[in-house]
Amino acid sequence: MKVFVVGANGKVAQHFADFVKEDEVIEEIAMIRDPKQADFFEERGIETVLLDLVKNSIDDIAEAMKDADAVVFSAGAGGAGDDQTVLIDLDGAIKAMTAAEQAGIKRFVMVSTFRTGREEMSKDNDLQIYTIAKNYADEWLKNRTALDWTIVHPGILVDTQGTDQIKTGMGQEIAEIPRQDVAKTLISVLNNDNTIKKEFEILGGDQTIEEAINNL
Amino acid sequence: MKVFVVGANGKVAQHFADFVKEDEVIEEIAMIRDPKQADFFEERGIETVLLDLVKNSIDDIAEAMKDADAVVFSAGAGGAGDDQTVLIDLDGAIKAMTAAEQAGIKRFVMVSTFRTGREEMSKDNDLQIYTIAKNYADEWLKNRTALDWTIVHPGILVDTQGTDQIKTGMGQEIAEIPRQDVAKTLISVLNNDNTIKKEFEILGGDQTIEEAINNL
Fold first, then answer.
1. Are B117 and B135 in contact (CB under 8 A)?
2. Backbone angles phi and psi of B152, in degrees to 5
3. I need a surface site. Which of A65, A144, A146, A175 has the fewest CB within 10 A?
């Protein structure tokens, strides 16, 4: 399965590339914005395409996706300002969904934020604009596309070593999860069609990722 | 017909209040954020409700709307920053739509921007975030509600005296339109059910507003 990763150079997605290198089923096409980012992927035998989610058109992105079987959306403005949040986390996500449909791809895995929904969107905090952007991107994916989506809502991302132990659910108390375990969960999601049309939170827990995803 | 106006103190909506005062069919409930804004409406015999589109809940807004037959959405962040654009023009609009549905109101008239859609959203200019916010609010209204919507896309708003002469259409070259004529068009839209499930641009033109709206 060829997986087109939007936001391939992000921290979660770099761990994803490491798992792809070891995986027998999944290959990756890494969408990157800066040619300097290519080495990391080439070292792992991963093809790169140079595209800018904001500046390139849906047609450009669809063309780059044409050999892929699935899309993982792991891009994010990450504190670059509210304008970038709107351009990347909201509109960029919707552009990627539209491109996937245009390219005839069915499978779309979204890395969302831990909690969306009205209560969270109403909180006057530093993450409010980000939460709203992610919420409406998720809403679009679920309600305005015919994609086989999965939405993963990770807890607080940390850079500690992955444990391969998670728990899934919805409405859980927030807790940490290593980025490496999020990446491994994405691999497992792609390998398990029982995750189609499902969304779930992931936190550090006591089930192996394989077990947790199989039992969703 | 009782019309609940979100963003009642805005420039277009203030002209709207003047027309309401003369209209035999339309009454207004003006949603305002600052008690100091109430005098303007009381002088015109218009009821006010004090609510904040960002801070108040959908339940609060729905409760205030409960005696209304229609909603006009004319709020806008108006250059107060990208965060306010997301909170008011996108999420605030969707909150107002949800509140209207919750209150059992069918009719919803949106004052949009001149041009939305992918081409306009992709333009890297000062209005890009605003255009994206308005676009997705319009999309929600059309595709995610069961409201009897009308979307009005005015050209460049100016404060010159209204002429009562407009032209309607889609994909027109942008031109000016007095705010007073936009307000009068909203009155005409509310009085004409043939505008339901339609969206159109309005610019200065050579048809009377009544004629232009009747012939949509």
1. yes
2. -105, 125
3. A146
- Residue B212's region, left for phi above 0, alpha for psi from -120 to 50, else beta, is alpha
pLDDT by residue for chain B (216 residues), tens only, comes to 999 999 999 999 999 999 999 999 999 999 999 999 999 999 999 999 999 999 999 999 999 999 999 999 999 998 899 999 999 999 999 999 999 999 999 999 999 999 999 999 999 999 999 999 999 999 999 999 999 999 999 999 999 999 999 999 999 999 999 999 999 999 999 999 999 999 999 999 999 999 999 999
Structure tokens at B163: 């002429």
Of A170, A74, A85, which is closest to residue A127 (Cα–Cα)?
A85
Which chain B residues touch A118 with a CB distance below 8 Å? 58
Nearest to B88 by CA among A125, A134, A119, A129: A129
B185-215: b (≥16 Cβ within 10 Å) or e: bbbbbbeeeebeebbbbbbbbeeebeebbee
Task: Tell me the three state secondary structure of residue A199.
Answer: strand
Evaluate whether A154 touches A202 at the Cβ level (below 8 Å): yes
Ramachandran bin of A188, using left for φ above 0, alpha for ψ from -120 to 50, beta for the remaining angles: alpha
Q: Are A13 and A72 in contact (CB under 8 A)?
A: yes
Question: Which DSSP string do the residues of chain B spell out, in sequence order?
Answer: -EEEEETTTSHHHHHHHHHHHH-SS-EEEEEESSGGGHHHHHTTT-EEEE--TTTS-HHHHHHHTTT-SEEEE----TTS-HHHIIIIIIIIHHHHHHHHHHTT--EEEEE--S--SHHHHT--STTHHHHHHHHHHHHHHHHS---EEEEEEE-EEE-SPP-SEEEEESSPPP-EEEHHHHHHHHHHHHT-GGGTTEEEEEEE-SEEHHHHHHT-
User: Looking at residue A37, what DSSP letter applies?
Assistant: G
Contact B87 A118 (CB under 8 A): no
Is B130 an active-site residue? yes
Return the closest-CA partner of residue A61 out of A73, A44, A43. Answer: A73
Task: Give A121's contacts in chain B (Cβ within 8 Å).
Answer: 91
